[in-house]
Structures are given as structure tokens and as C-alpha cells.
Design a protein that fits this description.
The protein is of the alpha/beta class. 40% of the residues lie in helices and 21% in strands. It has 13 helices and 16 strands. The protein starts with a strand and ends in a 9-residue tail after the last helix. It binds aspartic acid (ASP) and magnesium ion.
Length: 457
């Protein structure tokens, strides 16, 4: 069996849901279980409604709910038969009436608790999974709704609840597998779950990928397909470098390195349950279903190409700390890190010598205060408008003279910091923000002009 997960943009309206039905129909012989997100932007709207209610803005909260009610009705009506709609439409009204009551209750209490917020936000996936189930039935797919609250059992940390893997596996095998064996196509909302006591929870923004991975892992799926609206992962940002290529196969570790740089296709941590069981995860495009997408696997196959991708992150500040008197003394780095810690500021790249340390952080308002604290122990300079550029690839380990080739490709572009990650699968350096497009183009030309056709499109 396989798990097919459709993200918000893949189910954003009737036409999109219809496309997913065609895609699912084409894979019935592989026995799919489907996980769906809320329609795009619905989660944001529900969060906003809950927040407005918590602030006593009753009309604003109800207006947002009204918009969502209309959107779900319109979508449902376009997708299902009049007979189905007679039931589904009434169900949607019942649910949205309850949402209204809930929002009014929050207004009355004058506070949005994390528990209520999860309840409000759960409507997105709960209702869309119903709409999608009926839409599939109307298209001859033997779909059956699975209430996520009966399978995705979590702890009670509302907003970011931790799924209980063993319990989920047990329930997937007992509740979902029999449906598959019966020839049905189970459809479940992602992102939402419940505690053992049945209290509604959510597992963090973007959590539907996580739900799909948990379902796939629980059912020992042959593959997990993450359907989104791009052709998988690319070697670099095609807006900067039109020669960017699609990556056919990437390892989990490589994908994880890239996630930090906002390769926002999916957050690899969310598919870890699948990767740990060696279940291949595919990123596919519901707008271009014949494209092969990107395959994420536990171990990347041997390849002739050193790198998989080049990523960049702007809005980086470099902080230089120099303290000659610290020569030979211990505790210097700790003292510095303590300052950043105190300001809840996370450090990304570090390079050190005996008496100096350079660090990078995301540019933020706390930096002057951090610098002032550091001044107490050392001389400090900081400069914003920098960027981290990172080349990722498991073959870096085996490639000699790789740094030399990277810096030759960069030519006269000024490199301010260098770090070859401990993971040995990235080379990271810091340059002026304005140099990013040119640096990326040069590196791409140097390392991706002739590539392994097994790994790149
Ligand atoms: N609908 C949820 C969100 O927008 C979960 C998801 O789409 O993965 O965060
Ligand atoms: Mg997503």
C-alpha cells in the first residue's frame, strides 16, 4: 500500500480536489490511503478567528467563520451529486454552527486557551477530509472517511502535540488496514489528532506531512507520496539561476540540511518516521502529475556529482568578538554563547581562532543588546546584510580539494567566513547579501553543468 498526502494548495478548491481524485484513481492498484490538509489558507483563517475571539472581537471572528462556511459549501456543491450534497451540506452547516458557538464561547470567556485553539483550528482538516471523501465517492473511488482522532493519538501539548508512535501504529493496523484490505480508500485529515481521552490536538504547522509519515510508518507502506505544487526539490532557486535542475534522489540528511535554508517543499524532520523504516518519500506536483518529482531516501545512492544543491539565506548578521586577554584562558566560548542564550538568539555558523570568534545569527532587534553584553568581556563588531551560502552533498566526504574548487568558482567574490560542517555533508560560507545571485550562478555553472543523470533531471 502507499500513502498519498495532498497539501493545502493541492486541495484549495473544487478543481484542485478533482485533480487529486484523478491522481488517486490512477493509483488504485497500489492501494492508497489518503491524508489531506485543510484547503490552503484555511488554517490561517481559523487561527485568526480564534485569536480575534480571544480578544473579544466577536464580529471579526464570526465574519472569518462565515467566509470559511461559504467556501466549504461552494467547493462541496461543485464536487458532489445533489443527493450527496443534501447530506454533506447539512453536515457542514451543523459543524459551522458549532464553530460559531465555540467562537462565541471564547469571546464570552475572554481567553483563547491552547486547547480551544486546537479545537478551532481542527475544523480545517476535519471538514476538508469530509468534502474530499464525498468528492472521491462521486468519482467512483471507494473512499471512506477516517476520523484522525481515532488514529493519531498524541500527548496533550496543544499546538505542538507529540504523536505516540506505538499507539498510532497499533490503531493504523487495527482501524485503517482492514479498510484497505476491504478495497476501500481511507481518507484522513492530516495535522490533527487527539489525546487518549479524545481531546482534540494538533501536531504543529505543516503537520500533515508528519501525519502522512506516521500513517505510512504504521502501515509499513511501500511509499509515501507528498503531493504539493512544485516539481520536487531543485538544485537551487530557479528565480536566481534558470539553469536549476530537479533533484531526482536526495538523502534524508541532505534534505534536512536544505530545510534550514527555507527549501520549503517539506520539512524533512516530519518524514523521519518514514525514513527510519526505510520507506521512500516522494515529493510530487499535483499540477504536473506526470513529473517524477524528488525521491527522499535514507541513504543516497552513489553518484558522480559532489553536490546535490546550493542554498542561500539572507538577512544574516556577522558578530566578531575579539579578546586578546583571553589568550589561553578557558571558558571564553561559553561566556560568549551564554550571552546569546540569554537573549534567546540562535547561532548558525561559528568560526574561531585562539583570541577571536565570528558568529552568525539571523538579523534581529536583539543584536545591539547582545553586542552591549559582549562588550563587557571583549571587543565586538557586527555587520548585517550578509548571507549564508551552503553547498550540500553526501559526496563531499570523498571529494578531494573540494574547498579549493568552490573558492576558485567564486572568483573575486569576498568570502567573510567559512565552515565545513561537522556533518561533512555541507560546505558553508558567508558573503555579502548583494553577492548571492552571482555566487550561486557561478557555483551552479561550476558544479551542475555536467551532472549525473541518475540523480538530476
Ligand atoms: N493545515 C495545516 C497548516 O496549514 C497543516 C498542513 O497543511 O500541513 O499548517
Ligand atoms: Mg505543507
Amino acid at each position: 500500500m502507499i500513502v498519498m498526502k495532498f497539501g493545502g494548495t493541492s486541495v484549495m478548491d473544487a478543481a484542485a480536489i478533482d485533480r487529486t481524485a484523478q491522481i488517486v484513481r490512477g493509483r488504485l492498484s497500489r492501494r492508497p490511503a489518503v491524508v489531506v490538509s485543510a484547503m490552503s489558507k484555511v488554517t490561517d483563517a481559523l487561527l485568526a478567528a480564534g485569536k480575534a475571539a480571544g480578544e473579544g472581537k466577536r464580529e471579526q471572528a464570526l465574519e472569518l467563520a462565515r467566509g470559511l462556511r461559504e467556501r466549504h459549501h461552494k467547493t462541496a456543491k461543485e464536487l458532489v451529486t445533489p443527493e450527496q450534497y443534501a447530506v454533506l451540506g447539512a453536515e457542514l452547516d451543523r459543524e459551522f454552527d458549532m464553530l460559531d458557538e465555540l467562537l462565541k464561547g471564547i469571546v464570552a470567556v475572554g481567553e483563547l486557551s491552547p486547547r480551544s485553539s486546537d479545537y478551532v483550528v481542527s475544523y480545517g482538516e476535519r471538514l476538508n477530509s469530509r468534502v474530499v471523501t464525498e468528492a472521491y465517492k462521486a468519482r467512483g473511488i471507494p473512499a471512506i472517511l477516517v476520523d484522525a482522532r481515532t488514529v493519531m493519538i498524541t500527548d496533550a501539548q496543544h499546538g505542538r502535540a507529540i504523536p505516540l508512535d506505538d499507539e498510532i501504529e497499533h490503531r493504523a493496523k487495527n482501524l485503517v488496514r482492514p479498510l484497505l484490505e476491504d478495497g476501500k480508500v481511507p481518507v484522513m485529515g492530516g495535522f490533527i489528532g487527539a489525546t487518549h481521552d479524545g481531546v482534540q490536538t494538533t501536531i504543529g504547522r505543516g503537520g500533515s506531512d508528519f501525519s502522512a509519515a506516521l500513517m505510512g510508518s504504521g502501515l509499513d507502506a511501500e511509499a509515501i507520496e507528498i503531493w504539493t505544487d512544485v516539481d520536487g526539490m531543485m538544485t537551487t532557486d530557479p528565480r536566481i539561476c534558470p539553469e536549476a535542475r530537479r533533484i531526482r534522489v536526495i538523502s534524508f540528511e541532505e534534505a534536512a540540511e536544505l530545510a534550514y535554508f527555507g527549501a520549503k517543499v517539506l520539512h524533512p524532520a516530519t518524514v523521519l518516521p518514514a525514513v527510519q523504516k526505510n520507506i521512500p518519500v516522494l515529493v510530487l506536483n499535483s499540477l504536473n502529475p506526470s513529473n517524477e518529482g524528488t525521491l527522499i531516501v535514507a541513504r543516497a545512492p552513489r553518484s558522480k556529482s559532489t553536490f546535490k544543491a546550493i542554498a542561500a539565506k539572507k538577512r544574516i548578521t556577522i558578530v566578531d568578538v575579539v579578546a586578546a586577554r583571553m589568550l589561553g584562558a578557558h571558558g571564553f566560548l561559553k561566556a560568549i554563547f551564554d550571552v546569546f542564550d540569554k537573549h534567546h538568539c540562535s547561532i548558525d555558523v561559528v568560526s574561531t581562532s585562539e583570541v577571536s570568534v565570528s558568529l552568525t545569527v539571523d538579523s534581529n532587534e536583539a543584536i545591539p543588546a547582545i553586542a552591549a553584553d559582549l562588550e563587557k568581556i571583549a571587543d565586538v563588531k557586527y555587520a548585517g546584510r550578509n548571507a549564508i551560502v551552503c553547498l550540500v552533498g553526501e559526496n563531499i566526504r570523498e571529494t578531494p580539494q573540494i574547498a579549493a574548487r568552490v573558492f576558485t568558482a567564486l572568483g573575486e567574490i569576498n568570502v567573510r567566513m567559512i565552515s565545513q560542517g561537522a556533518s561533512e555533508i555541507n560546505i558553508t560560507f558567508v558573503i555579502d547579501e548583494d553577492d548571492v545571485p552571482e555566487a550561486i550562478r557561478r557555483l551552479h555553472r561550476a558544479f551542475f553543468t555536467e551532472v549525473d543523470p541518475e540523480v538530476f533531471d
